Amino acid sequence: MVRRRGASTLGCLIPLLLLAVVAYFGFPAGEAYFRFYQYKDAMGQEARFASTVTDEHIKTRLVALADSLDMPPGAELLTIDRTTTTITISAEYDEVIRLPFNKEKVIPFRPWVRSRL
After folding, report:
1. How far, in Å, CA of 29 to CA of 17, rounded?
2. What are the backbone dihedrals phi and psi of residue 69, each rounded to the nearest 5 degrees, phi first?
3. Phi-psi bin for 96: left (phi > 0), alpha (psi -120 to 50), beta?
4. How much is the pLDDT for 108?
5. Quick one: pLDDT band at residue 40, thresholds 50, 70, 90?
6. Is a pLDDT exceeding 80 seen at residue 31?
7. Is the dihedral of CA 61, 67, 71, 72 positive or negative?
8. Would you say the C-alpha torsion 19, 25, 31, 32 has a positive or negative sign?
9. 8 A C-beta contact, residue 38 and residue 108
């Protein structure tokens, strides 16, 4: 009687290879969403403290952040609407994600926040 361990000759090589391929091609999309959430969080922070600063100061800080996060063109084009009780900050930009076989996917992002003054 021959004892077998139950392991194939490839072991877990195929699942690891599949995981590596998914991580390699999924990283740029994950990075784009992470930048979006960082930018939106900064917008929210600026909106929370908007009662003490001007719209130009808010815009200057968010444009600098968009530049430091290496955001695509259009992210620095902010719309700031201020009323007596609320402030709304928004932007629109598109991220281009490179896919295998020289394909591209355009993902639109529309971060916006509203806060009471």
Report:
1. 19
2. -80, -5
3. beta
4. 96
5. very high
6. yes
7. positive
8. negative
9. no
CB-CB contact of 111 with 43 (8 Å): yes
Distance CA 9, CA 65 (A): 51
pTM above 0.70, yes or no: yes
d(CA 115, CA 117): 6
Question: Mean per-residue pLDDT for 15-44?
Answer: 91
Tell me which residue has tokens 């130009």: 56
Q: What average pLDDT does this structure show over 38-58?
A: 95
SS3 per-residue string spanning the chain: CCCCCCCCCCCCHHHHHHHHHHHHHHHHHHHHHHHHHHHHHHHHHHHHCHHHCCHHHHHHHHHHHHHHCCCCCCCCCEEEEECCCEEEEEECEEEEEEECCCEEEEEEECCEEEEEC
| CA-based nearest residue to 89, from 35, 33, 37, 40 | 40
